[in-house]
Amino acid sequence: MAWVALFVAGLFEIIWALALKYSEGFTRLWPSVIFGVAAWLSFALLSYALKTIPMGNAYAIWTGIGAVGIALVGIFWLNESADFMRIACIILVVMGIAGLKISGSGSSIV
């Protein structure tokens, strides 16, 4: 269950990062509210996951999910660059997340 919580925490990290962009420095109400709720949920779920997942693995995976997710949102939603180097680096982060997941739970990726 901790791994599911960690994954969902990473998804909420993507949401709060996107809401932060749209809050325009916390001058827009609803994106700011979404930021606050998503950030709180993200940290709460990360905290829950840290009860059983090693801290280094959990934090790296949480930030990795957020980094990859928001990079993909930037590419597909915000029309940011999708050049070779950016995609290659995203792939490397995904490989690192998978490696940490494997090392933190035994032998399976799921």
Automatic annotation (TrEMBL):
Query: What does the entry give for GO biological process?
Result: xenobiotic detoxification by transmembrane export across the plasma membrane
The record gives the membrane topology as: Multi-pass membrane protein
Q: Which domain of life is it from?
A: Bacteria
Whether Transcription counts among this entry's keywords is no
Query: What is its subcellular localisation?
Result: Cell membrane
Instruction: Cite the entry's keywords alphabetically.
Output: Cell membrane, Membrane, Transmembrane, Transmembrane helix, Transport
Molecular function terms, GO-annotated? transmembrane transporter activity
A GO term from the CC aspect: plasma membrane
Name the residues that span the membrane: 29-50, 57-78, 84-102
Q: Which Pfam families match?
A: Multi_Drug_Res (PF00893)
Gene3D superfamilies per the UniProt record, alphabetical: 1.10.3730.20
Question: What family does the database annotate?
Answer: Belongs to the drug/metabolite transporter (DMT) superfamily. Small multidrug resistance (SMR) (TC 2.A.7.1) family. Gdx/SugE subfamily.
- Supply the name of the protein: Guanidinium exporter
Q: Gene encoding this chain?
A: sugE
